[in-house]
Amino acid sequence: MSPIILSLTSFVLAAGVFTLVPGLDTAFVLRTSTVSGVRTGFCAALGITLGLFVWGLGAAFGLTALLAASTIGFLIVKWVGALYLFWIGLRLLICPRTAAQAVESGGRVNRLSGAQCFRQGLLTNLLNPKVGIFFITFLPQFIPHEANVVTFSLLLAGIQVLLTLSWFSLLIVMTAPLGAFLSRPSIVKTLDRATGGIFVAFGLKLALERQG
User: Could you tell me the pTM of the whole model?
Assistant: First the structure.
């Protein structure tokens, strides 16, 4: 087996494990597809994966290396990201959505738009410097010596994006058969508060992270 094929296979296996581990992105996608519909869930997933690819581009061209080396840059992105997560999480904890709150005068459900969920998913990743540092420390381990670093890094970042989007797509599709149950007011409120708690927890974790 050639070094390139071996590196790609090893990366897919390792990246697949990381993708399957539940985290902030998974909670956000599940909550969005449950409360606002399958289409909106896909918008959230696309925002998250675009954020991942932007960090992957940064890693390929060395931008995240500068972030890792710059204490001030890291702190700025870290605190902006932590505050953003706190803000979203507290909103969900304090004002969870219910069916009564979601119904407008016209009888239609007032759900978050696809653009809103796309933007939240994108910002959640772009404002987390640990995602960038993860890429710049994780990707080089799978780059063969004879490969072009930039090209191979972009390939690995693309694979990570495809794996993440595939996993999110499966989760979103699985919520469709449970739509009636998951749309109950009590379930919606519980999901909002659980997601809010996860956002706050990750915001706190990010705020306490050290650069090293």
Answer: 0.70
